[in-house]
Give the backbone structure.
Amino acid sequence: DAGVIQSPRHEVTEMGQEVTLRCKPISGHNSLFWYRQTMMRGLELLIYFNNNVPIDDSGMPEDRFSAKMPNASFSTLKIQPSEPRDSAVYFCASSLRGADTEAFFGQGTRLTVV
Amino acid sequence: GQQVMQIPQYQHVQEGEDFTTYCNSSTTLSNIQWYKQRPGGHPVFLIQLVKSGEVKKQKRLTFQFGEAKKNSSLHITATQTTDVGTYFCAGPSSGTYKYIFGTGTRLKVLA
């Protein structure tokens, strides 16, 4: 298995533009997590899905952020409109069975909003 | 809410010295996991501890889960430059599927 695949690896966009981050979890994994990492706030959980259903989105900063998981092999995190404070590394992770099993992280998307 | 704190936040050591990071949860954990993130990389799973008082070793790394299952430690013997990175502990949030990650300890090893 190729692991968790995220795209793009780097994204530079202008303030106000829409940004879409993509994630392909490991096949067979039931849980998918989106994290944001910054120096100031560390690793923050934004949202997680179990069996494609959003379970907890309490970490989503505001209505500008939305996430979908239309099927077991694909998820997106969208920011519209983007702002400079959204600049961070966004990680997608998947696990076989929630937090009882190890999380496999993707390589991350480094987002810069100018 | 449930919190997982790690100390120290940063640690600089000379190559060959030992290193320990401590993880403390505000609630009892069913298991504790440890991850390592190299600079510019992504977190990578190291190990999972499940039993109270459990101790596991991976070469120079020793992991321990506290008797009360609320704390854990990672000890590295004779650090090497390859040990550089941030070490995170993580545990399941009560009654949910999600991980609560600790604040991390950033290790620098001076050659």
Notes: The CA atoms of residues 19 and 44 of chain B lie 19 Å apart. DSSP finds no helices and eleven strands in chain B.
